[in-house]
Amino acid sequence: MRLPDKTEIENWRCEAVIIKLMHDYKWPRALAECWFTDFLRWIYTSRRLSTSHGDFVMDGLSYLDEVWHCYILHTYEYIKMSNQLFDTDYIHHSPENPFNRK
User: Fold this and answer.
1) Mean pLDDT, the chain, whole residue set
2) What is the pTM of this model?
3) Do residues 37 and 9 make contact, with C-beta atoms less than 8 angstroms apart?
């Protein structure tokens, strides 16, 4: 695994995901693009912290989870992002079961 430069994160785009988010959630383009970039920032942070501090939990950031779910459905683009930005085959997503919360 590698960590990309922050400029790579800021400049990475997937138009198909942006359009799908705009369509499915009725988000304006600027918001869909912003939250797409926030998702990549979260992935970057979680990958950075997981190597030294264990798992990094997404809590109260459900919009990022929506972006992740949408991105995973675009498998070619998602795998390309995993490979090119993080030098890994696939970044797995294991959402928390809301019924297991205390």
Assistant:
1) 87
2) 0.83
3) yes
